Amino acid sequence: ELVGYLSFRAAQLGNRYVLVTADDLTESRRIDEVRRDFVANISHELKTPIGAIGLLSETLVLAADDPAHVKKFATQLITESERLGALTKDIIELSRLQSVDTLENSEETSIDKVVQAAVDANEVIARARDIELVRAKRSKLRVMGDPGLLQVAVSNLIANAVKYSPDHTRVGVGVRSTKGFVEIAVTDQGVGIPESDLDRVFERFYRVDPARSRATGGTGLGLAIVKHVVGNHGGDVRVWSQPGKGSTFTIRLPEADPELTTALEEQLEE
Ligand code: ADP
């Protein structure tokens, strides 16, 4: 079994000694491999909508004289180009998150504002399926972070909760403080996730049910983005689920320490 890579170099020191140095290349090889896999997966994922757009456009030309067909194919064309747009957006977002591990726009951020913006972003799509987004009562908790990225993370969890739930159900969004951390929980009454898949849903392009994910416009990158955003903030994301009953995803972020923030600000001003 291969456990790692070492690179050796040897140099002669005078005629009695040989200096041998070893570099551990395991980590950089692993990163190379992950990058190669990502590029291979991206190519595969892009081929589906691009292929469909090509075919639909050709069919549209052939069906140009039949208004009913034109409408049908043009509508499918819009769906496929929207899919391509969403995929491109997520790929760019994820690449950006992977290339920086420091946060550029970090500030003391109200969790309430982040959660409210994420709920608002999903309100229309939830209402269309009579899914009620239930917000917990207001919270004064604050974290250090990039409000835009945090909103993307919470919004991705809410979007999934809605996407993988039947109509006329409820999605709850709660916030609480626990041992120096702020915890945001998103709970649904949806299809749930089999235990054997729980570990893998945060992987890029991993889907429990690929057909369902594609049919609902999923890119397979939503949870990978959440994991990166939360990781960059020194937090974590976890999931509990019961197939057929529903799922809960939680994001934990270190709670901002107001005294520390003030002290740092004063120091910076000096
Ligand atoms: P996708 O774009 O496919 O939704 P994600 O990375 O957001 O990609 O999620 C990965 C997979 O995890 C989904 O395809 C789905 O199978 C599963 N999943 C995510 N959230 C939920 C949820 N709330 N309920 C059930 N399954 C979920």
UniProtKB/TrEMBL annotation:
GO molecular function, one term: ATP binding
Catalysed reaction, written as an equation: ATP + protein L-histidine = ADP + protein N-phospho-L-histidine
Keyword RNA-binding applies: no
Stretches assigned to the Histidine kinase domain: 41-257
Leader peptide range in chain numbering: none
Keywords, comma-separated and alphabetical: ATP-binding, Kinase, Membrane, Nucleotide-binding, Phosphoprotein, Transferase, Transmembrane, Transmembrane helix, Two-component regulatory system
EC number(s) from the headed UniProt entry: 2.7.13.3
Protein location: Cell membrane
Chief site of localization: membrane
Source species, domain of life: Bacteria
Protein name: Sensor-like histidine kinase SenX3
Organism: Curtobacterium caseinilyticum
Portion of the full sequence shown: 116 to 385 of 388
